[in-house]
Amino acid sequence: MAGQICWNIENSWFNTYVYDKIAKDPAIISWMVGVSAVVSTLAAFLVGTWSDRIGKRKPFIAIGYICWGALTIAFGLAEFLPKDPLIVAVVFVVAADAVMSFFGSTGYDAGYNAWTTDISNASNRGKLGGAFAAMPVLATIFGAIVSGMIVDAFDFFPFFALMGGIVMLTGVFALFTLRDHSRLTARKHEGGYGAQFAEVFRIHTVLANKELFWVFIVNGVYFIGFNVYFPYITIYLNNYLNMDYAMAGTLQGVGLLAAIFLTIPVAKVINRGRIAPVIGYAIAANIAGLVLISMFSNRMVLLIGIFGAGIGYVLMVQTITAWIKNLYPEHQRGQFEGVKMVFAVCVPMVIGPLISGYFINRYGVHMEIDGVAGMVPTESLFIVSAVMTLLTLLPLIPAAKHAKKRLHAL
Predict the structure, then answer these.
(1) Of 270, 336, 284, 65, which is closest to residue 176 (Cα–Cα)?
(2) What is the extent of the structural domain holding 89?
(3) In this predicted structure, what is the pLDDT of residue 384?
(4) Which of the residues 82, 245, 393, 399 could staple to 148 if both were Cys, CB 3.0 to 4.6 A apart?
C-alpha cells in the first residue's frame, strides 16, 4: 500500500506539482515520465538479477523503500529553485524523479513484486491479483481525496514530506519484520553476473516463453492507452472543468473504489483459467468509461465514466498479475520483473505521454492560469486513449490461444 501511494504521487501529483509550480508545459511532464520509466526498468533488471543471484528480496525492499521516501521529500524542494533560467528547475525535477524511481523500482518491482511471486502459487494468484489491483486504487483514493485536502490546505511540500515519511517508515518496518520465503535459493550463472543479466535478452528465452511474452505485449499496449490520459486527468478536471483538487480527487476516488469490489468474484474466474475473457470485458468497460468522460462535464456522468475506466483498470491489473506470475520461470522471477517493466512501465510511459503531448499541444486549449500561459488538455485526450486501449485486443488473441493450449495440456 505504501509503495502504491508513492507511485500514485509520482504518476499523478508530481505532474500536477510541476504544472503548477514550475511551468505549464506538458513537455516537462513527458520528459519526467519517460526518463523515470527508463530508469525504473533498468533498476528492475539490474536489481532483479542481483536478488535472484543471492536468493534474497528483503534487503532490496527495505533499503529501496527508505531511499524512495527520502527522495520523495527531496522532490518537493524544486519549487524553491530559481525559475530564471527555467532549465535549472526542469533538470532538477527530471533528475530527482529519475533517482527516486530507481529506488522505487528497487524496493517495489525488483524486490516486493518478486517476493509476492515467491510466496504464492497458481491456486491463489487470482486473489493475489485482486490485492494488486485494489492497492493502486486505494492508493489513488488516498492520494486523490486525502492528498487533495492536504495540498489545498498546506500546499505541496508538506504533502510530499508526509507521504515520503510514511514510505520511509514502511522500509524501516520491513527491515525488522519481513522474511524471505524458505524456498527461495540463490541462482548464480557460471558466467557471472553479466552472463546472467544477458540471459533474458536471448532469443531462446523468448521462444521458451511465448505465452508470457504475448501477455507482456498485451500489458504494454493497454498501458500505453492508460498513460495517454492518466497523468493528465487531474489537470483536466482541475483546469479545463474548473474543479478544485478535493472535488477532482473525490470523483476519481469514489469511482475507483466502487470498481475494486469486482475483484472478489473475478478472482474465482481467474483461478479457473478464464483469463482472456476477463481482459476482454475489462477493455470494453475501460473504453465505455473514457467515452463518457470525453462527452460529459456533469459530475454524476463523470463519476460513471471514471467507474467504467476504473473497472477496466482494476480487472486488467488483477488478471495480468495472475497470468504473468503463473508463467514466470521459477529461478528468474526477479529478472523477469525487469522484462515486465519494459512492457508495463518503460514503453507505455514513454509512448503514452508523447502521444498526450502531441494532442495537448495541437488540440488543447490555451489558457492563462494564475497569470501564467499554458496548454490544457481537452476531452479529445480521452478519445485517443480509448482508441489506443482498443488495440489491446490484437495481442490478446494469440496470448489467449497459447493459454488455451497450455491449459488443455495440463
Answers:
(1) 65
(2) 2-182+190-356+374-409
(3) 95
(4) 245
The 3-state DSSP class for residue 82 equals coil
- How far apart (Å, rounded) are the C-alpha atoms in residues 141 and 249? 7
User: What is the domain count for the chain?
Assistant: 1
Instruction: Kindly state whether residue 367 falls inside one of the protein's structural domains.
Output: no
Q: Name residues of the chain where pLDDT drops below 50.
A: none
Do the beta carbons of residue 110 and residue 47 sit within 8 Å? yes
CA distance 264 to 273: 15
pLDDT on residue 82: 66
What does the pLDDT read at residue 193? 80
362 is a domain residue:
no
Long-range contacts of range 95-100, CB-CB < 8 Å, 24 or more positions apart?
96/71, 97/10, 97/14, 97/32, 97/35, 97/36, 98/35, 98/36, 98/39, 99/39, 99/71, 100/10, 100/36, 100/68, 100/71, 100/72, 100/74, 100/75
Model pTM? Answer: 0.79
| CA end-to-end span of the chain | 35
| CATH number, domain with residue 210 | 1.20.1250.20
Residue 391 CB neighbour total at 10 angstroms: 14
180-202 pLDDT, tens digit each = 887 777 777 667 788 777 877 77
Q: Residue 134: its pLDDT value, please?
A: 83
Residue 365 lies in a domain: no
Q: What is the rounded distance in angstroms from the CA atom of residue 144 to the CA atom of residue 4?
A: 13
Angstrom distance (rounded) from CA 195 to CA 63: 26
Beta carbons of 86 and 23 less than 8 angstroms apart: yes
| Residue 404 included in any domain | yes
pLDDT digits (tens, 9 = 90+) for 86-137: 788 888 888 888 999 999 999 998 899 889 888 888 778 888 888 888 887 7
DSSP 163-222: HHHHHHHHHHHHHHH----TT------TT-HHHHHHHTTSHHHHHHTHHHHHHHHHHHHH
